[in-house]
Every structure is written in structure tokens, then in C-alpha cells.
Prior knowledge:
Layout: E1 2-6, H1 13-21, E2 28-32, H2 41-46, E3 49-50, E4 53-54, E5 69-73, E6 78-81, E7 89-95, E8 108-115, E9 123-129, E10 136-146, E11 152-162, E12 174-183
Antiparallel strand pairs: 1-2, 3-4, 5-6, 5-12, 6-7, 7-8, 8-9, 9-10, 10-11, 11-12
Amino acid sequence: MSRRFFSVLALPAGVAAAAAAAGCQLLCQEAEIPRGKKASEKEVTNSKRWLGRQQKSPTGSGKPCDLTGWWENDLGSRMHVLEVDSEGNFSGEYHTAVSSADKPIQPSPFVGSQHLGEDGQCTFGFTVNWKKFSDSTAVFVGQCFAGDKGDEVLQTSWLLREKVDSLRSDWKATRTGCNTFIRVG
């Protein structure tokens, strides 16, 4: 049995504390419980919550998870995945709901690839180029889960690299986080 915990790697303590106080998930990672203990029901329930919303926890129906279509995450950002080819390559457009850029947000292109697993619950990754309104790039990795009721959930982790003016400012150029996407069309 596993329990979900959050860890922060190579971030100044002040940044980590501020993010945690704001309710941000910096890095999500499953870990084995020491000495083989089972997680309590309360721990399991708490591990399925973020920002006050209950996460869906599909168990898998054997039905292949299809990345094609519209997805929305817990922050209100939406993405449209176009056709996935026979090699697992895909592209689409990301409509972010959040940005620290000075320019107005615009839809941004992404390209990616998925591992076409036999159980239908694929792993995938994609890169978003924010060039239309920002000097940053983001990479997402995740897994698609198909639930017993046909619902699909994408669990993702991401890195966002922002352009900085100097090497001295490099410490603040990369952000990390997790998002859960649900199918909306």
C-alpha cells in the first residue's frame, strides 16, 4: 500500500514555505510506507484531495484511455489534443487559465508522445511553447486512467522554465507542479 506525500527538491525554503501556505502542490510522488504499514482510511481520503476538491480515483476498466479531445484541469486550464497517430505522436493547443506574463494569454501549441500500453492506461508527455505571449516553455508528463464508469483522468506533473536575464537569476527560473485533468469533450 502507498501513501501520497509531497516533497520539494532544490528550492529555497522561503519559496517552498510560501507555496505550501498557498496550497500549491510542488512535487507529487508516491512512496512506500515504512515497515509495510497500511495507510489508514483517513490517510487514503486525505491523499485524494487538492485545493478542496475531491479527485476522481478510477480503478481501470480495461478500456483504452483516449487522449484525443478536450481536457480541463483543476486550475481551469483547458487543452485540446488532436488525433494521436499510430506511433503515439500527437499535437494540440493549450489554453492556460493562469500566467505571470505581462501580455494577454493566448492559446499555445503543444506536441507530445504517448506510450501505447496494452492495458490502455498510457503514459505520455508533451511540451507547450508559450511563444505567443511569454518567453517560457513547459513540459508535462503523466498517465491516463480509465475508470470503471468510463470516466478518464489525466494525472500530470510539469516543469515550467521561464527566461531570466542572468545566471544569477537562474534559481527562480523553473517552477514545478501537478495537475489533474478531466475530460470535458
